[in-house]
Design goal:
The protein is α/β, with parallel strands linked by helices. The chain is about 30% helix and about 25% strand.
Length: about 350
């Protein structure tokens, strides 16, 4: 029923305030979440209290050391809101107990680790589970599901499993001592299916993941990708299709609606930096025919690669920030065996290509 309503809504979405027939909110958190990340915790707790006193279930299925995560997330949430009710659903928590917790909750928080563990526990062998149905019921009653790192990666119909950008694009990287040759092409699997419009990725700028996201979008037949930076969060309103930047740390909305492929190279990809309070409606974008992007122009620059001392100094983020300034020229980021070339689209966004150096 949820997907039928969504398809019907696409034909009515040209209204000034489109609706999708879905309900609830997702909060995609890119990983590296510090306990003092005010914007993330305050917004999560605000959403959790939207329909009554907040009752939060922290889901630790992705995490290796679940005991440590229980202590850490419990203390973090209660620091930001003393006395808030927090329960924990571990991998070994029985189905009946997990469903009962979720059915009483106003919000879920999926911790980081390995997203495959989440699917193994709650959507085994690509099927369904009573726990997943309870999660969908939570969204249907207007609740919120947040996910950090692995919890971000699993939100869509498909999810990225692993891999670096060069192999995902089909570029064999130089061999590394002690490493096997990587699998070429994007490594995709089924996600939890909470998010109909986006393929999500985490640790995005910090690990130079724009290449693998572009490759995965084309392989999976999805137009939009959301790369969430570390200590960053993006809110997705399922009822309207709005995506909103929540944090001072940025994320990137990628659109391959006009992409042109030639071997391992992908051209005419568009992107928008999701800065704090930036809002984009995906339903309207889905209905609009992609505009041909402008060609590169202006002075040429090379973005220097530096060690990741602080998130805000990372080369990938600096490239997209510089290229989003109208008239700033063309910015090239050379990486290991591949590169990103980006330039302004004239409307505050970016056009870019990825491919071999």
């Amino acid at each position: 029923m949820r997907w039928y309503l969504f398809v019907v809504a696409l034909f009515a979405a040209c209204q000034s305030s489109p609706t999708t027939g879905l309900r609830g909110t997702l909060l995609a958190i890119g990983g590296g979440l510090d306990n003092d990340s005010r914007a993330v915790y305050e917004r999560f707790l605000e959403l959790a209290a939207a329909n009554g006193p907040p009752r939060i279930v922290v889901v630790t299925a992705a995490t290796g050391d679940q005991d440590q995560e229980v202590v850490d997330k419990g203390e973090s949430l209660r620091t930001w809101q003393p006395g808030v009710q927090v329960e924990f659903a571990r991998r070994e928590t029985p189905t009946d107990a997990t469903v009962a917790m979720i059915d009483q909750a106003t919000a879920l928080f999926f911790t980081g680790g390995d997203q495959k563990r989440i699917l193994d526990r709650y959507r085994p062998e690509g099927g369904d589970s009573p726990e997943r149905q309870a999660m969908l019921r939570l969204l249907d009653r207007g609740g919120v599901i947040a996910g950090a790192s692995a919890g971000d990666a699993m939100l869509g119909n498909q999810m990225l499993l692993s891999g670096r950008s060069a192999p995902a694009l089909g570029i064999a990287p130089p061999p590394r001592d002690g490493e096997e040759s990587p699998v070429l092409g994007p490594q995709l699997g089924q996600g939890m299916g909470f998010l109909p419009w986006l393929l999500t990725d985490s640790h995005f700028f910090e690990r130079d993941r724009v290449g693998r996201l572009v490759a995965a979008l084309a392989a999976g037949g999805c137009r939009f990708g959301l790369g969430v930076g570390e200590d960053a969060a993006v809110e997705i309103d399922l009822a309207t299709g709005d995506v909103i930047g929540v944090t001072p740390s940025d994320s990137l909305l990628v659109d391959i609606g006009s992409v042109v492929r030639s071997g391992a190279r992908r051209d005419q990809v568009r992107a928008t930096l999701l800065r704090q309070n930036v809002r984009i409606n995906l339903v309207r974008r889905l209905l609009a025919a992609p505009e041909p992007p402008p060609p590169p122009s202006g002075p040429e620059h090379v973005v220097p690669v530096v060690e990741a001392g602080q998130n805000r100094q990372l080369a990938s983020w600096r490239q997209f920030l510089a290229a989003s300034v109208p008239g700033s020229g063309t910015w090239t980021l050379p990486l290991e065996g591949w590169q990103v070339v980006a330039w302004p689209d004239g409307q505050g966004g970016v056009v870019f290509s990825v491919g071999p150096r």
